[in-house]
Design goal:
The complex is a heterodimer of chains A (301) and B (275). With 301 residues, chain A is an all-alpha fold. Helices cover 77% and strands 1% of the residues of chain A. Chain A folds into 2 domains: 2-45; 55-298, MetI-like (MetI-like fold), CATH 1.10.3720. Chain A is flat and about 70 Å long. Chain B folds into 2 domains: 2-43; 48-274, MetI-like fold (Orthogonal Bundle), CATH 1.10.3720. Classes of the chains: A mainly alpha (301), B mainly alpha (275).
């Protein structure tokens, strides 16, 4: 009787165990289906545009919805232009912060202060950067443009790149700090014992050792810059043409989507915008996976 | 001799440059906070917090609808994201080395990097098109997808830090596996999981892009999750890009509240992490 009861109890446990594992599996499957669902949904809804323009969509230089002439090149160029410029500007600063926090001042009040500041910058919502940019950065850029004798738009690639620089800095800085802290002490001490100065240790030991990790941090911050929407949209001037220069207004893939997606009811146009979303998704996905792969490799060795 | 002097000088100069470049970032941070505090505080009073936006030209408008809307959307997103996120995290801990886990981990990386505007498109195509209307629900779904990877990753990391002896002790007492996980492992990692949840909320609280064509906006108070709903970030966007001075002031006030909320949440999370 009692034996019967205990096997019954065990059976009940076994059933519950199965249910529990089933729940775990379904949660994980949801995550997988989400990502697959993105790809499928975006591809299906951009069918119309893919059929109409084919592969040439990516190289089309003209974006004229009224004439049904749609090419994505202006936005692809605009996106990479702003992102790479921002990346270039951010590297000296993020590298300095990484070295500062990872090597010079690992702890203490100054380091806590700088670390908190970087965290605050990372936590600030993108809309706040955009809003502040409109009222603070745009007038400054206009003054620069007047001084240089160019049309003082204030908005454009330059302005949005500056804001992007501030926004992506925290990411590469914090990853850089982590990898710099991972450099083994005995390597550094060996260099010091040979009479190297701190500068030489950083340049010849720390940077080469942490190089790929620092690079991964930069790649990941590039991923962020490419997909950044609000601040860029408010500061880039929203001009659907291939940018002529650094001060020229332009549009990025993300800012075009944000601006035009809800505005249109025309099917082909909507489908083209969704295709741009698909391209943006694929680009950021590849960049992110590359960055993560490098990080994984460096943390293993 | 001169060579050594040169090297020491180079060392000093380099250190100076590093310190200078590091601290330059304080300048924009300081300017942003200064601007928001100075312009924001003058816009905020009790009236501003509890009343609805006034029509253009009338005074004494407020942002009550946006504050309520933001909270509604954060609550729905959390309800959607927390169970799936925590359970997936447990899955990754439980089946560490399985093939499926590898795939899921990659999906988490992908989700982490999806531009938020793309999530807006997805939520629009999935929810707004099916229901035929902009809604708080569609915005919440977009934001909950943004929360997921943060929750999953922190849950997995937290659980992996819990010593195996704890699990073995429980199993040795004859406790079934699922109860060991639910009653021993998860409680032991509770504060870590909670931190992940808070982190994920700070990630979405100020998010605007996915809401542009999902929850949209609404000048009235709305509690129905199937109707368009105003949120703080969206209101800031609309007011900031408008040409009216009065709306700019309201946007500064709303920015102040948003920043205090987001950074406050950040601060609380940080204290939790330290403990």
């Amino acid at each position: 009787m009692t034996g019967n009861k205990s096997t019954q109890k065990q059976d009940a446990f076994a059933v519950k165990e199965k249910i529990f594992r089933g729940i775990l599996y379904s949660a994980a499957i949801i995550v997988l289906f989400l990502v697959l669902g993105f790809l499928i949904t975006l591809t299906i809804h951009s069918q119309l545009s893919i059929k109409e323009y084919g592969f040439g969509f990516v190289f089309g230089k003209v974006w004229k919805p009224t004439k049904n002439e749609l090419g994505a090149l202006p936005f692809i160029v605009g996106t990479f232009y702003t992102s790479f410029f921002a990346l270039l500007l951010s590297i000296p600063f993020s590298l300095s912060i990484a070295i500062f926090l990872g090597e010079y001042f690992k702890e203490g009040a100054i380091s806590t202060f700088l670390k908190s500041s970087v965290e605050l910058l990372a936590g600030m919502p993108s809309i706040i950067y955009g809003f502040w940019g409109i009222f603070m950065l745009v007038p400054i850029v206009q003054k620069i443009q007047i001084a240089l004798g160019i049309a003082p738009y204030g908005v454009g690639i330059f302005t949005s790149s500056i804001i992007l620089t501030i926004m992506i800095l925290p990411y590469s800085a914090s990853i850089g700090r982590e990898v710099i802290q991972l450099v083994p002490d005995d390597l550094k001490e060996a260099a010091y014992s040979l009479g190297a100065t701190r500068f030489e240790v950083i340049r010849k030991v720390i940077i080469p050792y942490a190089r790929s990790g620092i690079f991964a941090g930069i790649i990941l911050s590039l991923g962020r810059a490419l997909g950044e929407t609000m601040a860029v949209m408010m500061l880039i001037g929203n001009l659907n043409k291939i940018p002529k220069g650094i001060f020229s207004p332009a549009n990025t893939m993300a800012s075009l989507i944000a601006n035009d997606f809800a505005e249109t009811t025309e099917e082909l146009y909507l489908s083209a915008i969704i295709e741009i979303g698909l391209i943006l998704f694929l680009i950021t996905m590849i960049i992110n996976l590359i960055g993560r792969m490098i990080i994984k490799k460096t943390s293993v060795t | 001799m001169r060579h050594t002097k040169f090297r020491i000088a180079a060392n000093r100069i380099f250190q100076g440059i590093i310190i200078f470049l590091s601290f330059i970032i304080i300048v924009p941070l300081f300017l942003i906070i200064l601007h928001i505090v100075v312009n924001g505080i003058s816009a905020i009073n009790w009236q501003f917090l509890v009343s609805l936006p006034a029509p253009m030209g009338e005074k004494d408008g407020g942002i009550a609808n946006a504050i309520v809307g933001t909270f509604i959307i954060i609550i729905i997103s959390s309800i959607l994201a927390i169970p799936v996120g925590v359970l997936s995290g447990i899955f990754l801990y439980e089946y560490k080395n399985s093939k499926l886990s590898e795939v899921i981990r990659m999906c988490v990386e992908v989700l982490m990097g999806v531009p938020s505007i793309v999530l807006g498109i997805i939520a629009y195509l999935w929810i707004v098109l099916s229901f035929g209307s902009f809604s708080a629900l569609s915005g919440s779904i977009a934001l909950s997808i943004m929360m997921l990877p943060v929750i999953i990753r922190t849950t997995e990391e937290t659980l992996c830090l819990i010593p195996d002896t704890l699990r073995e002790a429980s199993l040795a007492l004859g406790v079934p596996y699922y109860r060991t996980i639910l009653k021993v492992i998860v409680p032991a990692g509770f504060s870590g999981i909670l931190t992940g949840i808070l982190l994920s909320i700070t990630r979405i609280a100020g998010e605007t892009a996915p809401l542009l064509f999902t929850s949209f906006g609404n000048p009235y108070m709305n509690l129905n999750i199937f109707k368009p709903t105003e949120t703080l970030p969206h209101l800031i966007y609309v007011y900031a890009t408008s040409p009216y001075k009065q709306w700019h002031n309201a946007a500064w006030g709303a920015s102040f509240i948003l920043v205090v909320f987001v950074l406050g949440l950040n601060f609380i999370t940080k204290i939790l992490v330290r403990r």
